[in-house]
Every structure is written in structure tokens, then in C-alpha cells.
Write a structure and sequence with these properties.
With 439 residues, this protein is an alpha/beta fold. The chain has two domains: 15-265, TIM Barrel (Alpha-Beta Barrel), CATH 3.20.20; 321-432, no CATH class. It has helices at residues 44-61, 82-95, 115-124, 138-143, 150-163, 180-193, 210-216, 225-241, 260-266, 297-307, 319-330, 339-346, 352-360, 377-380, 413-417, 419-428; strands at residues 15-21, 23-24, 36-37, 66-74, 97-108, 128-134, 166-173, 197-202, 245-248, 251-253, 270-274, 279-284, 287-293, 311-316, 337-338, 348-349, 364-368, 407-411, 431-432. The strands form five sheets. Strands 9-10-8-7-6-5-4-1-11 form a nine-stranded mixed beta sheet, with helices on both faces. Strands 12-13-14 form a three-stranded antiparallel beta sheet. Helix 6 links the parallel strand 7 and strand 8. Helix 3 (115-124) packs parallel to helix 5 (150-163) and helix 6 packs parallel to helix 8 (225-241).
Length: 439
């Protein structure tokens, strides 16, 4: 691999493994992830045995795959022992071929970061960490339900910088009370601390969370859409000034430093989902399946012990479902969706009239190919991205000539801000092309 974020030589996104570690020290009020607090601790040896058994089962369904990335997510994976991480990685290497330069990421919270612990994860095989900082303001961290301080977050970033070649951290913006000036100042401070990658997420009110109840009661007021769009524009402006291009709606990186595992998702690759509440997309027997495991950690463990896996659902995806998923994921990326691959995977093409209408509204643009309905990316954006070649490569003019034969579609900044509506409109325009010649 000449650049970390590039696709395989076949042009396909590749294969990865996602490991879900479900435990947290405390549940944050905005979080709807499958995370659980166990004040009495957990039987880590029992859970490790369950991870190893489920890996063996899923590997039997996906024999012959080569793993290009592994991602430990949660929950708070940095709460597990480094020895557990090493054993899980050893199991992955037993069941699949693991690329020599595979990206192996572990999520960490600042409160669980110690230099010796990070060295243990590095020695276990982890080569990239992602730290959940969320804010650099102590008062904001308290509102977010975080149990670390801003100084602990800065210390954790420093430990990560000294321990790993690659690291990233997350911030949440568009929080209650946010203004243009307060976010601009906090983001400038974050950029001084950042390495080659930074994740910046707008606060989303998720159903069935404490924040949702407060919001419904009028006790939690978030910025309105116009104010949120202003904050988004500031985000693009400042990150681009520092050379951290927005290769995805919320993720920014220098060329070649994009998250390889997350690109696998957004490019609609295949991945095994292992652990309580994990989702996967695997291909076996010429069919693509969506997999879902039992959410409750202890019930997942018991199910694995009884049946060899914790899978609750293994659902065959229709061509239409695959097309919808590929479109939604791909339009999150600045490189957009490869329309030729969309045709091969989903057996559909987009209506030219609908694409033209959305293009005229400044919500999407066609790139490469004939690109007859393209709007000028730089004229339509505040940020001068122009990533015609995709993440990891520098743009060379506006004609996208360096991607010969590739016809794509991507959302503009305005379109990414209303992405659900754009995807719904495009999905309704799908025209089936099965039985026809697909390039």
C-alpha cells in the first residue's frame, strides 16, 4: 500500500473486522451506542473466550478474506486489558490473513489513559488510537456527562502522540449555548493539539437518551439549523487552513492519514461485526448479508457459549437495499459514490433528470465521466477541497482528469448538511439495469 487510505488493487474497498467492547465507566446522556456500566466489573476471561469463539464462527462464513483493518469500538475499549486486545488480534490472525500493514485502531477515553497502558496496547498490536475528548472546556465536559477534565484530555493526547505513529481525537460541537466565537476559539485550540486526523461531530439528539427527554421538555436548547450551518462552515474553514481536508462529513485528515477502517464502511466494503450489539456486512456464497448480534453483554456471552456465536440476525440484502446503503454511505465522502460500482452492486442507475435537479440546487455534483450536470465544487463551497482523486491524493485541477473512466456523484457542503433528504430523493430515482451491460 502506497497510501494508507487507498483501495485494494482490485478497486474494491476490502475487508475489515469490528470488535465491539460494550463497557463504559459511565453512560453519557447524549450517547445511544450499545454501552453498559458494570460497577462490579466483568469477567474478562469469559468475554475473551466468547470473542474468540464468535471470531471463529464468522471466519467460517468469510473464509479466504484478507483483513486490512481492525477497529476496537465501544463502549470504552481502553478499559480492557492489553493482554485481551493481544489475544483477540491473535485470533483474527489465526482465522484470516492479516495484512502486514493493517490499520488497528482502539478507541480510548482520556480518563482511562495511562502511558504504561498505552504502551501495552501498542505492544499488543494496536497502531492507531482514537480518543473521545469531546470538548476542551471543563464546564462543557460536565454538561456532556464526561468524567475527565480538559487537562486530562490534553495529557491523553500527549501520551498518544508519544506512543503511536497515528492518533486522532473527537470533539462535539453545536452544543447548547455554542456561538461562532466560542467554537472558533475551541477549534483553534484543538487544531494546535491535533496530529494528522481530527473528528468533529455536530451534537445530535438521539431518541431514548436523557438528552432527548431534556430536549423534548424544552430544557436543552441546541443551535437552530442556521446557527448550526454557521458552525459547520467555521469547521470547514479552520480545518482547511491547517491542511486537514474534510474527506467525510465529520472527519478531517491530511492526505494518506484518513481512517482506513471508516473508509471501508463509507466505501461500502465488507466487515465482520464481533461482540455485543455489533453490526456487520459480510459476503458469502455470492450474497451480501447484514448481521446483528445480541446487545446485552451477558446474554451475548451466554449465547456464544451455547451456540458458538451471538448472532441474532443474518439477513440477505436485496439489490435495492445494497444500492440504498451504498448511496447513503458514499455520499458522506468528499470522493463521492462510484456510479459504475453502484450499478454493479445494486443493479441500478440514477435518473439523469433528478441528478440534474439536485445539481442545479447546489446539493450534488457529478465528477469524472461526462459530468454534464456538474456545478463548480470550489465555487459552491466555502472550503477549497476539490478532492477529485479521493482521499489520500492531491487534487489536480477541476476536471478530475486523473480519474479516467470513473464517473461519480458527491454531495456538496450544502448537500451534506441535508444528506438524508438528498439520499431519499436520489433513491426514489433509481432505474433498474439488471440484464443490461454494466461496465
Amino acid at each position: 500500500m502506497t497510501a494508507i487510505a487507498q483501495k485494494s488493487s482490485s478497486g474494491e474497498p476490502g475487508f475489515g473486522v469490528y470488535i465491539h467492547w460494550p463497557f463504559c465507566a459511565q453512560k453519557c446522556p447524549y450517547c445511544d451506542f450499545n454501552s453498559h456500566v458494570r460497577f462490579g466489573g466483568w469477567d474478562e476471561a469469559r468475554f475473551l473466550a466468547a470473542y474468540e469463539r464468535e471470531l471463529e464462527h464468522v471466519a467460517s462464513l468469510t473464509a479466504g478474506q484478507t483483513v486490512g483493518s481492525v477497529f476496537f469500538g465501544g463502549g470504552t475499549p481502553s478499559l480492557m486489558r492489553p493482554e485481551t486486545t493481544a489475544a483477540i488480534l491473535a485470533a483474527i490472525a489465526r482465522h484470516w490473513k492479516l495484512e502486514p500493514d493493517a490499520e488497528i485502531t482502539l478507541e480510548a477515553n482520556p480518563g482511562s489513559v495511562e502511558a504504561a497502558r498505552f504502551r501495552g496496547f501498542r505492544d499488543a498490536g494496536v497502531n492507531r488510537v482514537s480518543i473521545g475528548v469531546q470538548s476542551l472546556r471543563d464546564e462543557e465536559l460536565k454538561k456532556l456527562g464526561r468524567i475527565h477534565t480538559a487537562s486530562e484530555a490534553i495529557a491523553a493526547i500527549d501520551v498518544a502522540r508519544r506512543t503511536f505513529d497515528r492518533f486522532s481525537f473527537d470533539l462535539i460541537y453545536a452544543r447548547p449555548g455554542s456561538t461562532r466565537n466560542t467554537w472558533r476559539q475551541e477549534l483553534r485550540e484543538a487544531l494546535e493539539l491535533a496530529g494528522e486526523h481530527l473528528s468533529l461531530y455536530q451534537l445530535t439528539i438521539e431518541p431514548d437518551t436523557p438528552y432527548a427527554a431534556l430536549h423534548a421538555a424544552g430544557k436543552l436548547i441546541v443551535p437552530d439549523p442556521d446557527a448550526a450551518l454557521d458552525l459547520y462552515r467555521i469547521t470547514q474553514e479552520l480545518t482547511n487552513e491547517r491542511g486537514l481536508a474534510a474527506y467525510e462529513i465529520s472527519n478531517h485528515a491530511r492526505p494518506g492519514q484518513e481512517s482506513r477502517h471508516n473508509l471501508l464502511y463509507w466505501r461500502y466494503g465488507s466487515y465482520a461485526g464481533i461482540g455485543p450489539g455489533a453490526h456487520g456486512r459480510i459476503a458469502t456464497g455470492g450474497q451480501r448479508y447484514a448481521t446483528v448480534t445480541e446487545r446485552n453483554p451477558e446474554q451475548w456471552c451466554a449465547r456464544v457459549e451455547a451456540e458458538g456465536h451471538g448472532l441474532l440476525e443474518t439477513t440477505a440484502l436485496s439489490d435495492a437495499e445494497q444500492a440504498d446503503e451504498m448511496l447513503f454511505m458514499g455520499l458522506r465522502l468528499s470522493e463521492g459514490v462510484d456510479l459504475g460500482r453502484l450499478a454493479r452492486v445494486g443493479g441500478v442507475r440514477l435518473s439523469g433528470s433528478v441528478t440534474a435537479k439536485l445539481s442545479e440546487l447546489g446539493l450534488v455534483e457529478q465528477i469524472g465521466g461526462d459530468a454534464q450536470h456538474s456545478v463548480n465544487w470550489r465555487a459552491n463551497e466555502l472550503e477549497p477541497i476539490g478532492l477529485c482523486l479521493g482521499p489520500g491524493l492531491a487534487p489536480q485541477g477541476d476536471a478530475c482528469a486523473a480519474r479516467p473512466g470513473v464517473s461519480g456523484l458527491r454531495a456538496t457542503a450544502r448537500g451534506r448538511f441535508v444528506l438524508n433528504a438528498v439520499v431519499a430523493e436520489l433513491s426514489r430515482s433509481f432505474e433498474p439495469i439488471r440484464g443490461m451491460d454494466i461496465a
